[in-house]
């Protein structure tokens, strides 16, 4: 998404995410997009339930948004569930994150997953510098609608949106998808297309980066690498 970009009821019941990004906001609630937001936004779409370990991913994604729920992922594999849990601790490395390399902008090195997990996920990073005097209200409304559309599309694991630097105005937003195909489907939706058109007029500069999060079996940490080609995830 142009400024893009889970709860297991019983398992996570006593630890609903009041993140350090904003201790008063539950990270499972769809965020509001405001031009004067005081803190970065972390959004983790809620889950319906924990899937059994024997679950197999579908061979093809549906060509239409999920009708199960507008705010929950109906289908998730065990490794993605582990990543989702770890991402409750996701945060920028410091207040210079907007201009740091993607692999250094966040606390990737502190995120831990079970050794037996092995998987790749598709990431998109959006770096931007707003034009002075641009129509922020229209852009933020378009971002909100595009974000909700992406959630309905399915496959969104995390969305994180920073706060523009008070010194330079640079900002960074990022999202993680279960697969590149999920991201491509979301990008083709009408709300996303409208937000992308508004972004061209609202930003002095903007750049999309594509990355891959990799978890290797036998390790607990994750690796961040640039996306090169081909499918990512299932």
Write a compact overview of the structure shown:
By secondary structure, the chain is of the alpha+beta class. The chain contains five helices and six strands, in the order E-H-H-E-H-E-E-H-H-E-E.
Description of the molecule:
This protein is α+β, with helices and mostly antiparallel strands. Helices cover 22% and strands 20% of the residues. It contains five helices and six strands. The chain has a six-stranded antiparallel β-sheet with strand order 1-3-4-2-5-6, sandwiched between helices. A hairpin with a 7-residue loop joins strand 5 (203-215) and strand 6 (223-226). The chain is globular, with a radius of gyration of 17 Å.
Give the integer mean of the pLDDT values.
74
Please trace the helix and strand order, writing H or E for each element.
EHHEHEEHHEE
- Our Rg estimate from Cα atoms comes to 17 Å
The helix content is 10-25%
By secondary-structure content and strand pairing, the structural class works out as: alpha+beta
Low-confidence stretches: 1-21, 48-73
The strands making up the biggest β-sheet line up spatially as 1-3-4-2-5-6
Dominant shape: globular
Q: What is the CA–CA distance across the termini? A: 20 Å
Question: Main beta sheet: strand number and arrangement?
Answer: 6 strands, antiparallel
Number of strands: 6
Beta-strand content bin: 15-25%
Number of helices: 5
């Amino acid at each position: 998404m142009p400024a893009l970009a889970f709860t297991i009821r019983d398992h996570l019941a006593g630890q609903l995410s009041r993140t350090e990004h904003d201790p008063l906001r539950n990270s499972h609630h769809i965020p509001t997009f405001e031009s004067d937001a005081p803190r970065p936004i972390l959004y983790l779409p809620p889950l319906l339930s924990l899937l059994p370990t024997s679950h197999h991913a579908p061979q093809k994604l549906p060509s239409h948004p999920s009708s199960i729920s507008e705010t929950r992922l109906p289908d998730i594999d065990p490794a993605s569930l582990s990543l989702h849990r770890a991402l409750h601790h996701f945060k920028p490395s410091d207040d210079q994150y907007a201009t740091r390399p993607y692999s250094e902008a966040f606390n990737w090195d502190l995120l831990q997953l079970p050794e037996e997990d092995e998987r790749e996920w598709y990431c998109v990073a959006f770096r931007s510098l707003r034009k002075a005097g641009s129509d922020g209200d229209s852009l933020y409304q378009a971002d909100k609608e595009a974000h909700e559309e992406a959630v309905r599309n399915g496959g969104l694991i995390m969305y994180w949106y920073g706060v523009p630097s008070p010194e330079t105005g640079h900002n960074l937003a990022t999202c993680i998808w279960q697969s590149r195909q999920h991201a491509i489907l979301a990008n083709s939706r009408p709300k996303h297309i409208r937000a992308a058109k508004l972004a061209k007029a609202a930003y002095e500069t903007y750049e999309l980066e594509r990355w891959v999060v990799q978890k290797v079996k036998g390790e607990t940490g994750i690796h961040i690498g640039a996306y090169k080609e081909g499918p990512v995830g299932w």
